[in-house]
Amino acid sequence: MTVQRRMSGQRRGRAINTIGVWVLSAVLLLWTLLPIYNIIRVSMQDKEEVLSTSVFPVAPSPDAFSVVIHQAYWLLETFWNQMGNSFYIGITVAFLTLAIGTLTSFTISRMRIRNGWMLTNAALLTYVIPMSFLAIPFYGIMGKYGLTNNPIAVIAVQVTFATPYAIFIFQQYSASIPFELDEAARIDGASPPQIFFRIYLPLMAPALVAIGTYALLLSWNEYLYAFLLLSGGKVVTVPVALGKFLVGDEAPWNYLMAAAIIYAIPPLLIYYGVRRKMHGGLTMGGVKG
Amino acid sequence: MVVTTSIESPAAATNTTPLARRRRRLGADKLWALAFVTPYVAVFVAFVIYPIGYGLWLGSDPASYRALFSDPVYPRTVVNTLLYLLFGVNLKLLLALLLSGFFMRKGWWTKVLLLIFMLPWAIPALPSYLSINWMLNGQWGLINNIIWHVAQVDGPPWLDSHGLALGSVIYGHIWKWLPFWTLIFLAGRMAISLELYEAADVDGASLVQKFTHVTLPLMAGMYLVCTMLSTIWALGDFNAVRFISGGGPALSTHVLATLGIRNAFELGDPGLGMATVLTALPLLIPLVILLMRQLRRSEVTI
């Protein structure tokens, strides 16, 4: 009797559990996918249908994508040039972040310099300053340097805000590389650059992938500085161009959404390609305290 | 040691005593270290110290603050900023903490769901915020279209009233950043030893008891750090307001970050813009100090 009752109680508990999982899953899917469905929906509508009460596209067509791809709308005239600019800035930022980040963390953690904590603190400070708060002085300073409307200005600011995180992760990651390797190399007469290039960098490869991706995505996502520092012409990046759509009275939302989807594809591919490594980097160290 | 490697330069061989060689090596090391940190120090001085100093100087004119405090938009902006931080950050982190428990479940479905759930974070902010903007359009937006088809009534004009527009911005912020923080808490939970839960199971603890007596105490420190960090980042968030509500209707949903940019560039008054941003310092400075101390000590990396 009692055994039977307990069994049925367990079964009921499991059934409630399963229902709970499915309900929660449905809510999460709806929550996550609604704005994403909206981008895709609008990108497949034609101009008149955008201004209608439809929930599903009536006659889905890839026309908006073809307009974007062939740059057949005046706001999209230089779309591929803008994509190129985004790539150029993103890749340069990733490369410089890796270079500066590895050199700094190598010096702090492997060469054990006396005032390394000052560098760590400088990185920490940069990390906790909201990026947008420095936009106003930055704009003035870049004017003084003569770098307005120059991609170098945007690259500089993005590198500045990407390196602190790079330094943390590299420092943590390099703690797992045995120090004896460096010492053995030193006894053999290796100089610091040789240790850096032949021992440190190869062993740091996974962290390099994670941070390189992080810097590339940070740069790809960045709007405010690109908007302020790249005012027009051939140097504009895609986010700045997307932002310009909103200024007009009748924004062609289908073109805007199609361009936004094309712009979102590279980071999506990169993210899902190196997801494991990125998560490893992001959550490295997790909670020690 | 007889064995020398080919790496060693011929010049080093002329050194006779080991001590002299060692001393020279140390001097060279110092130079290398100096050369290695120079790029970062240069970046830090040119693009952090200098802008901070210049910004403080720009925002040092009392007249800017008089102009700012007499601007009717300003008090509303301060309230908006506080509401944005209070609800945006706390709701998001609470949900993230709870959801991270759900994603601890085993099985293929949870893995697939997590992949989909990470999408908002992987998609660049701008397309998502633009989509949310249009989705909430009062006349032709998806949400009101759905409401119309389901209930045959007109949905509210989401972005045309102050309260709803601010709520929409907060919704956009949570939507975009919930996956990231869930992932962080997921890593935190995974670091907790399973034995603790097994011991609790043996003692007959319920699900809620396990959460309050095992998970919560162990994650409290991390949760606090995340709250501070998220608050700072949300304080500097420009894109959500800019692209979901645009600060409207009638400048009623600006936050300090967007109002600062507006004052500096649309009104062409950098001093006023900097003053706007600098009024966040009473909140920012204590957070920065607390957070720096915490991050240095506990090695929580996010």
Gist of the model:
The complex is a heterodimer of chains A (289) and B (302). Chain A is built from 14 helices and no strands.
Can you walk through the features of this model?
The complex is a heterodimer of chains A (289) and B (302). Chain A is 74% helix and 0% strand. With 289 residues, chain A is mainly alpha-helical. Chain A folds into 2 domains: 2-43; 74-282, MetI-like fold. Chain A is flat and about 75 Å long. The two termini of chain A are 50 Å apart. Mean pLDDT of chain A is 84; it is low at 284-289. Chain B is flat and about 95 Å long. In chain B, helix 9 (162-190) packs across helix 11 (207-235) and helix 9 crosses helix 12 (239-245). Chain B has 302 residues and is an all-alpha fold. The model of chain B is unreliable at 1-15 (pLDDT under 50). Helices cover 76% and strands 0% of the residues of chain B. Chain B starts with 9 loop residues before the first helix and ends with a helix. Chains A and B meet through helix 1, helix 4, helix 5, helix 6 and helix 7 of A and helix 2, helix 5, helix 6, helix 7 and helix 8 of B.
